[in-house]
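Q: How would the structure tokens look for this protein?
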Amino acid sequence: MDNLTHSLFALTLARTPLARAGRGTTAALLIASNAPDVDIVATAGGAVKYLEWHRGMTHGALGIVGLGVVTAALVWTGRRIYDQRHARAAQDASRPRKTKQVRESAAEPNASFGILVAVSIIGVLLHVLMDVPTTYGTRLLSPFDWHWFAVDWMPIVDIYLLVVLIIGLLGKPTPVQARTKAALVLVVMAANYGVRGFAHHEALVLAPQLFGPTLPAPCDAPSSSLAPIERWPRPSAPSSPPPGKRCLVEMVAMPSFTSPFSWRIIAQMSNAYEIHDLNLLDQRFRDPQSAGDAPWRVTLRYPNVWTPAIARAATTHLGAVFLGFSRFPAARFSVDSHGVTTVRWTDVRFAGGTFGLDQASPRAGPFTANVRMSADGHVLDESLGR
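A: Here is the predicted structure in token form.
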């Protein structure tokens, strides 16, 4: 999720019984809920470095514990410095108002270092758990295993979640009212996740209707049960179809930013990706008489046929990093008059328009990797985006 959502969620948690742990818990929750994204420092090494390290070790088990301890140490140190400064101010008779502030703050006990560590670890852990249901995913087991994991329920920014969190923090309630509002917000959040989980399942059930008779058979025998969490890069490539044929590798449903009932269906074929937009509230999916109704079935197609040139580009540093990150890398290549080959991968998760399919302007976005090679196979340059 975005950092604003993480911050608002931390402030909501600070209104729950966790706040009774003592002074410093709110600051610990707020810092810890954003701490895993400290990997943004990798941008100092360029966009490729950021892609390589983002949601890596800081989102794994070692990062959860390590960042929790570091956050607790920062809050503990900062609080001691703050208390010492205001204790000296309390001794200055010329500052009676500050003396009053110190006496009021002293009424609330300080949280112990151990409590701050526990609260901070909870904040970091909840940050990671909120990242897993997004389409971007996270590397839960890094640095021991660099695979990505995702559940595909939530967009990276959920406007409904933001609205609920903001409303829950408005006003100046009493401590009892604050805890009640926080509890209601958490219930609404759980309901939002539940609705999106159910809608995701329904989208996958209805998705084959978008393809009709054009949907090919699966490349491999379908699994007896759906995996509760997606994992990539895949451990092995799917079986290849006979020459001249194509098969279905997998089909997924991605959430939209606008509605929990609008989904983007990505079908990975053996030679291309096909994308459809699906509205679960469209009654034409429920009406058998509209099975032949096709004008509204807009499709975006990305070819994905690997050649020796593409395989060579995949061995470059950028190729290895991008293919390790990209869940659905669509590969294309072109050769100019000088024999220079340009290989481009586009992560299909981020293809098309933001609110609908846009075939008129397939511009290269930040989740596109380019490798240019000379006629003799030497790499000329590597870049992300344009």
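Residues 153 and 196 are 6 Å apart (CA to CA).

Residues 3-132 form one domain.

Upvote if useful.
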